[in-house]
Structure formats: structure tokens, C-alpha cells
Request: fold
Amino acid sequence: MAYVDAEIASQPECWREAARLVGTVGGHLPRPGERVAVVGCGTSWFMAMAYAARREAAGQGETDAFQASEFPAGRRYDRLVAITRSGTTTEVLELLTALRGQVPSTVLVGDPESPAVGLADAAVPMPFADERSVVQTRFATTALALLRAHLGDNIATLSADAEVAVRAPLPIDPTRIEQVTFLGRGWTVGLAQEAALKCREAATFWAEAYPAMDYRHGPISIAAPNRLVWAFGDLPEGLAEDVAATGATFVHSRTHGCRTVLSSWAAGRTPVDPMADLILAQRFAVTLATSRGLDPDAPRHLTRSVVLA
Ligand code: F1P
Reply:
């Protein structure tokens, strides 16, 4: 078994641990009303995107997400939140250094001994969620679970959905498709981006991601038989029908197997949380990799952290 399989399966427990941690580190996280920038690279950037949209939708204040190298110098923020598993990613370290003494910063980090910890004003170490894999799964979602717990989201329910998602049958056999596009709305746009990145990183597979409302403004041209469209979160009116007309397969939590498992197991519950859908997509990416003869623990051209000379 690949390390990444075990890491994916451990997400429910990691999320519960993150929720417990909020009690001690909550003071370092954004307060209601603060104007906040959240930054990261790769997977960590997509988690920043998801948190930013969710915090703002929760009415807690303006929240922007940036790839660390694209932070707009000169903007005023009350707090910077950086997400980095390794704590060594060059662009994140450079930004923390540049904003030192100007913007209070908090880093969510996997490695408590890493340089990011010394550069930020406050650190939230999560070594329990750190990973052996190059391809991130549980650190990223655990960082998001911690931030969601701090926003008041119910992590017990979320983890119960995750328990289902680590075991449920995949909504589609990956060997049957040649391309996938993930869609999301609001905070799930970041999750869709992350799902597509997993397919590219782990399986070198053609995977795209868009805000669901933008999909019909061009990207739908890619849809065809033997291709897949997988939507997270709220579904725009008529989208499923429009995808069906292209001959592509459509997957959404209202229709896939998790719902069936959940409705008999936790009667009356709404469809699974989109973060549980992301677990299914992570498993889909790993299965894709192995079915293509690739080792998901050894992704092509990637290292655990990008450290630039
Ligand atoms: C960020 C990151 C990962 C990616 C790859 C390179 O790392 O972009 O998301 O999978 O391994 O690094 P980090 O700053 O979260 O350690």
C-alpha cells in the first residue's frame, strides 16, 4: 500500500484533532471583522482559497487568498495567514520575511522545526497531520478543518462524513475515463482546484477545475463521452442536464454512493460535506495512478517542497 493511502484514510481522526487544537491556538487565528489575507503554494494555496471564501461567506470579514508569490504589495491587511506543510517553501518564506513587523502573521505548518515558524509572529504546528508523501492530502484538509472549526463549523459531523468517504465505493471507475473536470461554487472552488491538482500530481492525468457557473462559458467544449465532470457543493440550475447532453459522465454528492451509505447510516442528513467529496477525489486520483502503472508516492518532477536557489 502507498503511504498516501494510509494518509488519506487518517483524515477523519486528523480533523477531529484539529478541532481540539482550536481551543489552544484559536487566539492566533483571524478574529471576526479582521481583514485577512491567506497565502500558500500549490495545495496550500487551494486550501487558502477555500477558507477565504468560507470565512467571508460566514460574515467574518473580507478575506483574500493569494499564491504566495502573487501577494499584492501595499495592500492593507489586519492579519496574514500562511499555510505550508513543509515550512520551507521559498515563496512563503520570502513573503513572511517581507511583511515582518508590518502585518501580524500566523503560519499553519506541519513541521514545527521549520524556518516558517521563526519568521511568523505565531505558529500553529500540526505535526500529527504531516505526511511522508510528496502529494499532500491530510495536511491540507486538516489545516482547512482547523480553520473551519474556528469559524464554528461542526467538525464532528464533518469527520463522520469523512469516515464514510474513506470507505465508500468510488463514484466512478477511473479506468473508464480519459479526462476529468472538477467544479465548485464559493468555497468549494478551492476544493475543485485541489481535486484536479491531485489527479495531475499523482496520476499525470488531464484534469481541469473551474467555478461551476463559468463552466458553460467555454470549458464545456471539452466534455464528451468517456470524460467526467465532477461537481462539489451547490449545483447550478440545469448544469447536470447540460453535461448529460454532451455525453460526459456527471458526478455530484447528491447522486454518488456516499449519499446512499449516509442516508441509511445517518438518516435525514443532507448530502456529504464537500470536504468528504474531496476525499473521494483523492482516492480517485490514487486509483487512477495505480491503474496507469504509476506510483502515487513518487510523482513525476515533484519534491515535497519547492526550495528555490
Ligand atoms: C506546497 C507545495 C505542495 C505540492 C508540492 C510542492 O508545499 O506546492 O502543495 O504538493 O509538493 O509544494 P508546502 O508549502 O505546503 O510545504
User: Anything to note?
Assistant: The two ends are 34 Å apart (CA to CA).
